[in-house]
């Protein structure tokens, strides 16, 4: 499993540096992940990826660090979307995660810690199929509506709670993430004069 392999390297690095979590290893490596534009919440297709903190090193440890910085950047993108939803009147109290990266313990914990809400991982591995089944059950009239079908069919989930001691780190990294967005726009403005 590639996630376990990379995360094993990060765990060993954290232990070597006497850190209580691999999270802190990417303190000085920042990534902005919109390599194909931003859909939400900026809706700016001209946005591109950015990396700050690269060195000439090319070891497996450096690959693992880039993986970690990428995970964190993806989470900060989610955090920005949730902030926009909250500003629009929604109340997000937890996040349900499914799909390939939900197999990464580090990705799950990073979401919980950076978002400050519990992350739920459904026991049902085929969540997309289950969702389609819920739609069919509601459409067929077996349940009064989609909410009733979801409540009846959803099943159990494992809950990952946020670790409060990670909050300051993620707040700082998130500030860098948003500054990278602003800086990229400023670079475009500067170069538009040519």
From TrEMBL:
GO terms for molecular function: D-ribulokinase activity. Keywords: Kinase, Transferase. One of its GO terms (biological process) is pentose metabolic process. One of its GO terms (cellular component) is cytoplasm. Residues 14-139 form the Carbohydrate kinase FGGY C-terminal domain. This is Carbohydrate kinase FGGY C-terminal domain-containing protein. It comes from Cherax quadricarinatus. Signal peptide: none annotated. InterPro entries: ATPase_NBD, FGGY_C. It holds the Pfam family FGGY_C. The keyword Kinase applies. SUPFAM superfamilies: Actin-like ATPase domain.
